[in-house]
């Protein structure tokens, strides 16, 4: 039979080991010389074979609602300043 003191020591040891394991799992990743992101990876890759963006190109809808697979990346966003029927100004993104 284990004494109350033995149970307490065992419980404290178990909690200490669990806490230590938790802390080691939360350690920061080792530093690298170069942090990479998806955008930086895409930028570093060659653009050969992709169409170039041309300033002033007129979009034609509904054709331009579709994907433009000949470009390396496509990013659409909409921002607008609207007024409700009650005269309230609303910003939309």
Automatic annotation (TrEMBL):
Coiled coil: none annotated. Residues 1-29 form the signal peptide. The keyword Ribonucleoprotein does not apply. InterPro entries: AttH-like_dom_sf. Keywords: Signal. This is AttH domain-containing protein.
């Amino acid at each position: 039979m284990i004494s109350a003191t033995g149970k307490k020591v065992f419980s404290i040891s178990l909690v200490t080991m669990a806490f230590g394991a938790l802390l080691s799992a939360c350690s920061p990743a080792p530093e690298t010389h170069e942090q990479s992101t998806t955008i930086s990876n895409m930028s570093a890759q060659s653009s050969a074979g992709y169409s170039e963006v041309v300033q002033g190109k007129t979009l034609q809808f509904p054709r331009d609602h579709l994907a433009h697979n000949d470009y390396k990346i496509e990013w659409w966003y909409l921002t607008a300043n609207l007024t409700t029927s009650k005269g309230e100004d609303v910003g939309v993104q």
